[in-house]
Design goal:
It contains ten helices and two strands, in the order H-H-H-H-H-H-H-E-E-H-H-H. The chain has about 240 residues and is an all-alpha fold. A hairpin with a 2-residue loop joins strand 1 and strand 2.
């Protein structure tokens, strides 16, 4: 007797929903504003700046300064390695999805970072944010079938431009909807950065706790999905994996 085929995916998982990605972008905007305004003037959500700064330092003969950037770059790489290696063993536990565990880790990390005084060298917090951003970026890849980044805006801006060109040329409503989806992610990221900057000075190091709000909502939503809405879908990989 032939084995029955796996059931077709008729709906998106909770971790792929638009509302989840909007909250992740909101949190990412807060991370970016936090490290730039309070923790050393560096954007830690991606690594392009660190590679450029390392190249500049080496070009100016500052080998020690340039070598430092290998630390955040390595932390980002390690985050990608772990977020790629852990989902399979986590799935075997049959309790919660990897995405859910990751959000619990992020919430705990934000809480701990808030207790690190601003007098502590900025590099400590920068590396932690590098690590968190990498795991989030590699874990949440597609929003309802549309490839997305959840820690920076470059690709979203590019996709808005592409969608605008296609909409003008082909008059296809689907292209317009995709462009609006990316524009929405940009606005969420902007809102997160604006909010943290607004409250950053009075809250100081604890300003990162603002990110606990969107992160906590995502965590609660995913726990509910894993235990109540989708307990039979723990085996299914999110789109893009």
């Amino acid at each position: 007797m032939m084995k029955s085929e796996e059931p077709q995916q008729t709906q998106y998982l909770a971790c792929e929903r638009r509302s989840i990605y909007a909250l992740l972008m909101l949190s990412a905007g807060m991370m970016g504003a936090y490290t730039f305004t309070l923790r050393g003037g560096i954007f830690c959500n991606a690594q392009t700046a660190n590679v450029v700064l390392m190249a500049i330092a080496f070009g100016e003969g500052k080998l020690g300064e340039g070598a430092y950037y290998l630390i955040p770059i390595s932390a980002y790489c390690l985050g990608a390695v772990l977020s790629e290696a852990l989902p399979s063993p986590v799935k075997k536990l049959g309790f919660l999805r990897w995405d859910t565990y990751l959000m619990a880790f992020e919430a705990a990390a934000f809480f701990c970072i808030g207790w690190i005084p601003l007098s502590v060298p900025d590099h400590v917090v920068q590396v932690l944010i590098n690590f968190i951003a990498s795991m989030q970026y590699n874990t949440f890849r597609q929003m309802e079938g549309v490839p997305m980044s959840t820690t920076f805006c470059t690709n979203h801006i590019r996709q808005v431009g592409i969608a605008l060109a296609k909409t003008i040329r082909k008059h296809n409503p689907a292209d317009a909807r995709r462009g609006l989806a990316h524009l929405g992610m940009i606005l969420c990221f902007f809102a997160g950065g604006w909010a943290l900057t607004l409250f950053g000075e009075p809250l100081g190091a604890k300003a990162i706790w603002l990110a606990l709000l969107p992160t906590g909502i995502v965590l609660g939503r995913l726990i509910h999905a894993d235990l109540v809405e989708e307990p039979g879908l723990l085996w299914r990989k999110p789109s893009g994996h």
